[in-house]
């Protein structure tokens, strides 16, 4: 079992930056694949949360959604049980609740991008980008 707590959200103007953090409890954090997802305010009911980025247990492999590639960077510090999402050049379309997620399945050469593949979720942090 792992508990995840996000922080770092807020209101920022278009073109600005934010860094989200996700602190995890549990001694096995370093073995989890970690991901960031988001849910926009007017997202259709029942629609799965949108994949943003994922990082392997070691931090050596990362993947990004096309919409954020080149602007967002995911990283992790296993000594601090924390995963980060650095968001630069923010756009109004990035406005959403951002969720941290953990997947305990061990993978080799694969980073899950579907919300259903992650077992543990944080409560979310709101990011609002004004135009």
Question: Overview of this structure, please?
Answer:
With 131 residues, this protein is mostly beta strands. 0% of the residues lie in helices and 45% in strands. It has strands spanning 4-7, 10-13, 18-24, 33-39, 50-55, 62-64, 72-77, 82-87, 96-103, 120-121, 125-130. Strands 2, 4, 5, 6, 9, 10 and 11 form a 7-stranded mixed β-sheet that branches. The protein starts with a strand and ends with a strand. The model has no long low-confidence stretch (mean pLDDT 94).
Biggest sheet: strands, sense, closure? 7 strands, mixed
Shape: globular
Distance between the termini: 40 Å
Helical proportion?
A: under 10%
Per DSSP, the total helix count is 0
- Note poorly predicted spans: none
Write down how many β-strands occur, each being a DSSP E stretch of 2 or more residues: 11
Proportion of residues in extended strands: over 45%
C-alpha Rg, in Å? Answer: 14 Å
Oligomer: single chain
Helix-strand layout with pairing:
Layout: E1 4-7, E2 10-13, E3 18-24, E4 33-39, E5 50-55, E6 62-64, E7 72-77, E8 82-87, E9 96-103, E10 120-121, E11 125-130
Parallel strand pairs: 2-11
Antiparallel strand pairs: 1-3, 3-8, 4-5, 4-9, 5-6, 7-8, 9-10, 9-11
